[in-house]
Amino acid sequence: MSRLFIYYSHTGNGDIVAETLSKQGYELRKVIPKRDLPKSFVASIFKGGFLAGIGHKSKLVGYDSDVSAYDEVIIGTPVWNGKVSCPVNTVLDETDLTGKKLAFVLYSGGGSAPKAVKKLKEKYNCLILELREPLKNPDELNKLGQL
Length: 147
Ligand SMILES: Cc1cc2nc3c(=O)[nH]c(=O)nc-3n(C[C@H](O)[C@H](O)[C@H](O)COP(=O)(O)O)c2cc1C
Description:
- By secondary structure, this protein is an alpha/beta fold.
- It has a single domain (3-146), classed as Flavodoxin domain (Rossmann fold), CATH 3.40.50.360.
- The chain has helices spanning 13-23, 41-53, 86-94, 114-123, and strands at residues 3-7, 27-30, 72-80, 83-84, 101-108, 127-132.
- β1 (3-7), α1 (13-23) and β2 form a beta-alpha-beta unit.
- The chain is globular, with a radius of gyration of 14 Å.
């Protein structure tokens, strides 16, 4: 079965998830926004938090939305302001996930994002895993075994 992990990562938590899933046989597709968050931590929280709050979709650099070659697609996003990150809003908007075995991996500071989970559940009937800062807490990666 062909499996793909599409994800965004600003500070590396998504990358460690990707590394782990790659070892489990997933191909990787990391999305790159045209404009990244500001370098300053505080400014990045304000800007990213505000934009995620209004459901903004980032422009992406050369995103390939064709997933027709895959049976299973996992989508990974950091939680921003309790919501899906802006680059992944674009992925969800542009990718036809019909008929795919689908799951989400959310990584966040608190490890729980009820607003994001509720919104995703309304649209997609699938498994949603929530990880608390897997870079700092590698045990969290064991949850990926549920996929
Ligand atoms: C703009 C912004 C907003 C964030 N908002 C939240 C939040 O609402 N709740 C939370 O638990 N963590 C929040 N975080 C922390 C990230 O979700 C967390 O560090 C995540 O693991 C980052 O993934 P990454 O390293 O792959 O970018 C926020 C981080 C940023 C940059």
